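U., I forgot to send this yesterday:
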Amino acid sequence: MDLTWFQRFGAVSGVLLALSIGVPGAVEAFTGETSATSFVLGLGVAFSAPAVTALYLHHRATAGRFGAFAYAANLLGLGLFTGVAFALNMVLFYLDQSTVDTLREGPTGLALQISAVVFLAGTILFSVSMVRSGGFPRLPAVGYGVTLPLLALLAPLPDSPATSGVHVLAAVSVAWLSLSVLPARRAAPVAA
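Result:
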């Protein structure tokens, strides 16, 4: 596999993921949640797995066993939480509140809570791995471990300017990290 191609694919996926988090978050600060913002966020989470894989491949040489474990935990958490984000934004958004409350009381509610816990743990571990490896700018690597768990914790709450701000900060962290995995372009030789 051509890792340079995958790094670019992962970086583009990360930027698209960031846009799908940040733009709806910024819009919702003024409009509240709409079907359009839910649609963008609900589908945008599909870019999370390639983005995180590119991040891991970028620092795997210095991440060690802990980094591999953190990546695996983060990937599992993302798999679960992207399903939750899709369901919240593409399904539950369109149901009446009593139906949503009924779903959250049964086994679905337990599954949502377990998904959130796995996502939180995996995200924090992966953030620690990125910081420890030294392969990423420190600020977005820490931001990843703070803002993305906050998104999960704030997901069940009503939208507010604070939740919108967290969306934008998470988007900045993801985009910054994603762009940092792009291979450095070599300068073309200058003719004498």
